[in-house]
Batch of 2 targets.
Target 1
Amino acid sequence: MKIMNKIKNMKKQIGQVLLVAVTKTRTIEEIKEVIEAGAEIIAESRIQEAEKKFIFLKEYLKEKNVEFHFIGKLQSNKIKKAVGMFDLIQSVDSLKLAQEIDKRAREIGKIQYVLIEINIGKEEQKSGILIENIPGLIKEIKKLGNLRLLGIMCVPPFSMDAEDSRPYFREMKKIFDTYKMKILSMGMTNDYKIAIEEGSNMVRIGTGIFGERKD
Ligand SMILES: *Cc1c(COP(=O)(O)O)cnc(C)c1O
């Protein structure tokens, strides 16, 4: 009931913007609840966790026409599993990773949709590609026959004040426009309103739907 209301409110607030319900750490029961309440896209950030859940969710997601996205760090030994599971991999941040995804997609006759993750705050510890490397990566990705690049994603530097995210979102929008992309995935629970003001068309919400994570 609580989740039901939250997702309905959230969808009302964001209008045409696509809502990704981030389901990491959430149970199968919670995930099904959010889908019953109208979530059309769910996302996980750890392959092992996603894999365990996918066993129980695969048929259900298909039946409900729900997309399954990956938004975490993708290690090379998990790429094959990822390509087998996800409709969109939002976290491609190197050519090597792109090439490996392409290879695994080709093996199973799949066209894999991807986003490039951008390290928009140039943070040492964060994944994502630096802005200066984007043109090169895009050029190379376009050569990969089993990849389709749909857009870009970012997680700006953490701040208690969502306004601090605005300049980063603005920079993302410029890149998005330059390459005439389809998906601009930015904005999480604390800063999705700012992200939408700056042109996001896909927000990724976890705690705003399910409440605080326990981990
Ligand atoms: C966890 C996560 C989210 C959702 O974060 P909330 O603050 O819970 O909304 C969004 N994007 C990524 C990449 C995440 O890992």
Note: Residues 2-210 form a domain with the TIM Barrel fold (CATH 3.20.20.10).
Target 2
Amino acid sequence: MSVELIDLRSDTMSRPTQAMLHAMMTADHGDDRFGESAATRALEDHCAALFGKQAALFMPSGTMSNQIALRILAGHGREVLCEAGHHLNVHQASSAAALAGVAVNAVTTTDGFLRPETAARAIGDRARWIAEQPATGLVWTENTVSGRGGRVYPLALLTDVKHWSTHHGIAVYLDGARIMHAVAATGTTPAAWGHTNDAMTLSFTKGLGAPMGAVLLGTEDFIGTARRYRQWYGGALHQSGPMAAAALWALRHNSARLAEDHAGAAFFASVLAESPHFVVERPDTNIVHADVSRLACTPGEFVTRAAAAGVRLLPVRRTSVRAVFDVRTPRHRAVRAAERLIAVAGEVRPVRGTARSRWWDRIEAPHPVTVSHQAHSRTWG
Ligand SMILES: *Cc1c(COP(=O)(O)O)cnc(C)c1O
């Protein structure tokens, strides 16, 4: 008997619903290079208003958004400060250097969040006018933090980073591929996050479930320049209407339902945590990292065994595997996946003690913000 495959590798695999397909079928086919794609214009206007930005530009991918923003905001020959685990540093294959001529100053933190004090330490007492020092052009942030199991970057912390950066004349960018997950998890408005940066992107292909696309958001000036670079990079589209319509439909109809994916991920995590084989923290959003170091196999081997049992995962962070939840995985499938993984783990000899792990005993206060505004103004004026 063949088992039904449950693919938890990424939320990029979420499929368009019938209603989204209908929105695509009824979208116009105007040419966006001539400014005649009504659906693309509607998407851009909607996104700019939603995040409180002056202007928006539809992009084929989040990676292209990131690369173009990097090129404009950091500037050729300068450096970007970026937490070491962020997508820019880990998944974009040195393109910062190859395409934008920008060096990544990758800062390792314990929790995945760059803070004003860690940014200050990374720059050191470097005076920016000394010719031998790299000039820091940009501070890079990411929300949710995908390499940290979809953690939400606290709004207050991002606000502190923005204050610090502005004080030092450094621009801030937000790679908000999953920013709508942060919005859903915190009950905040998108505009609240829009205020924490000079420019940002949002991806439609993750949990929002559209087949492709991202949007770049910023000032009129910034978007004007980005439009020129989008042409350079081959990302200017002609009949983008159907793809923009899918993106707008996703934003309007799928943003609220992301909370269901978060609930599914939390439930999956709690089932795994009840078994002695995994160490699992309660997820903030739709990504679960399960530590498998109690098992006598590598994360890669565990992924292979899990696939044979009908659950596809990805190995992450040396000791863990990740599972991502989206519209394809309602709660009964999440539970079935967890049960299969527990069965797989049961067939692998454990390496150490079998103390039960309970994530609800291990929850810390959600990512405390240590920099008060008072301390902030004392230190940085
Ligand atoms: C997926 C992702 C990207 C890249 O988006 P693509 O549309 O796949 O190019 C960038 N940053 C983060 C945090 C992501 O999760």
Note: The chain has two domains: 18-254, 257-364.
